[in-house]
Amino acid sequence: MITGKEYIERIDQLKSEVWEAGKKVDEPLSKHPAFKGAIKSQSELYDLQNQPELRSIMVHEDKETSLEIGTSYMVPRTKGDLEKRRKMVQVWARHSAGLMGRSPDYMNTVLASFVSSVSLLDHQPNCFPDHLLKFYKYAVENDLSFTHTFISPQNNRSSLACLDEDITNARVVKRLEEGIVIKGAKLLATQGGMTDEIIVFSAPGIQDSSHAFAVSIPSNSPGVKFICRKSFAGSEVPFDSPLSSKFEEMDSMVIFDNVLVPWERVFFYDNIKAAHDFYLKGNFVPLTLHQIVSRQVIKTEFILGIAQMIVDTINISEYQHVQSKVAEIIKGLEASKALLLASEHQAAINKDGVMLPDRIPLYIAVNLFQETYPRFTEIVQLLGASGMVLVPEQSQFHSAIGDQLDHYLQGYEVKGAERVQLFSLASDLCMSAFGTRQTLYERFFFGDPIRLSQHIYSSYSKEGPVSFSKEFLSEKS
After folding, report:
1. pLDDT above 70 (res 160)
2. % the chain with pLDDT above 70
3. CA-to-CA distance for 154 and 286, rounded, in angstroms?
4. How many other CB atoms are there within 10 angstroms of residue 450's CB atom?
5. b vs e for 153-183, b when ≥16 Cβ sit within 10 Å of the residue's Cβ?
6. Rounded Cα–Cα distance for residues 35 and 77 (Å)
7. What are the helix and strand counts (H, E) for the chain?
């Protein structure tokens, strides 16, 4: 397991091709204003792995190899393993208040889900299960960090889009002796450029075999370009931008300009069935959902804390509508925790000996969070009201008018600077560009919420409840 310093050094040495604000980034990424806050925060996560008091949670001894690896890479074999994975995720999530959706444990979990589903690739055309197994071993031995991309650009999302001539989506254009060549673009690589590797795989529903592939390549591979959106990193003064200055994970489009992927880095290609089965029949869904909900529980706890601190700071706890609003967050928190624990309690071993959490409670938890998170941020806005807008910078309090601001902006038993610092935190979460991106991110985490609801409806077993109800119809009066 690497340290935070080693992580930063590796990312800076890669010199991946990253474009931000119309310019190619030439300086070390850890020094660039758009990346340095998130890179520093991520490095602190790696340091947490190495703290002796956290070893029982953050470290896993792999019995097959006798290697000590990060728990985030662990393939769970028991319910105890699932509990350990949850605790590991929440140690890291607590450090970032759950605001780093692409902290290393997410993609490490994805890789663990892939390697534990490797049997789906056995004896299938253009599939290389041995490549995946070797790469997983390499990744855990070097504690690699990953971003990923699997979404096609929004050029045409109509039902007849399949009839268009494709000119943008990343696809295999050549099959050479050295490997496959990929050309085109993919969305939405969060942390693009600030990880060792990028995993590229296909989402279900593709109709062209050239789009059906899964690979992992170094982020600095020739021809790979990360094109960043506008940075949402706020002021470097923590008082003014307490969250966006530390946890702004850059999102990027990835352009593959005739990128050669060596065969040993190809897991499968030109196989629509493999792409479909690997995503839907493999372990990707239950294991990644378990990681996601574990993080979202911590994020909800953070929001509840902010909401209650606002209530206390301006002394509004006696109002019924205030109590009702905060209770909404409490209900959301306890529901997410219960669904997460239910998924572990109802976990079962699959045919490959992997302990998988029950999908249904996790699907419901994620779908619920898609609906409730925007409401939670709205509640914080409603509780803070005008105080969410009037948040002077720290420099104002250090100026000649600082004493006046302390007086006129005071809260209940706190001076103005202390009250504004809290409201600055709330504003950064709910009203800044960083905060609104967080809301959009959670709205669509794991896909469109309507489609997810449809999947819950179609996959949930309703025979028992229906039979139960029919008994009352058949009873004689």
Report:
1. no
2. 97
3. 27
4. 10
5. eeeeeeeeeeeeeeeebbbbeeeeeebbbbb
6. 37
7. 17, 14
pLDDT at 343 over 90: yes
Mean pLDDT in residue range 463-473: 93
For residue range 29-80, what is the model confidence (pLDDT) as tens digits? 999 999 999 999 999 999 999 999 999 999 998 877 778 899 999 999 999 9
The two structure tokens encoding residue 171? 């696809």
Taking a C-beta distance cutoff of 8 angstroms, is the pair 147, 216 a contact?
no
Cβ atoms of 406 and 397 closer than 8 Å: yes
In the prediction, which pLDDT does 381 show?
98
**pLDDT class for 150, splitting at 50, 70, 90?**
confident
Say how far apart CA 150 and CA 297 lie, in whole Å: 26
Under 8 Å between Cβ of 269 and 260: no
- 453 Cα distance to chain centroid: 20
Apex CA 100: angle with CA 453 and CA 72, to 5°? 85
Q: Which helix (H) or strand (E) holds 376?
A: helix 359-384
User: For strand 348-349 and strand 68-70, is the pairing parallel, antiparallel, or unpaired?
Assistant: unpaired
Do 201 and 213 contact (CB within 8 A), yes or no?
yes
Residue 233 burial (10 A CB sphere; 0-12, 13-18, 19+):
buried
Tell me which residue of 79, 107, 146 sits closest to 341, measured CA to CA.
79
- CB neighbour list of residue 320: distance below 8 Å, 6 or more residues apart: none
Q: Which residues in 116-158 belong to E strands, given as ranges?
A: 146-149
* 3-class secondary structure, 42: helix
**What distance, in Å, lies between the first and last C-alpha atoms of the chain?**
69
Is the entire prediction scored with pTM above 0.90? yes
Biggest alpha carbon–alpha carbon distance for the chain: 85
Residue 21 amino acid letter: A
How many Å apart are CA 408 and CA 399, to the nearest integer? 15
Q: Residue 108 in 3-state DSSP?
A: helix
The Cα-based distances of 462 to 77, 280, 346, 468, 469 in angstroms read 29, 21, 17, 10, 11
157 in Cβ contact with 187 (< 8 Å): no
For residue 387, name the pLDDT band (cuts at 50, 70, 90). Answer: very high
Token match 């959009």: residue? 440
Helix residue ranges per DSSP H, 150-283 = 244-247, 272-280
Give the total residue count for the chain: 477
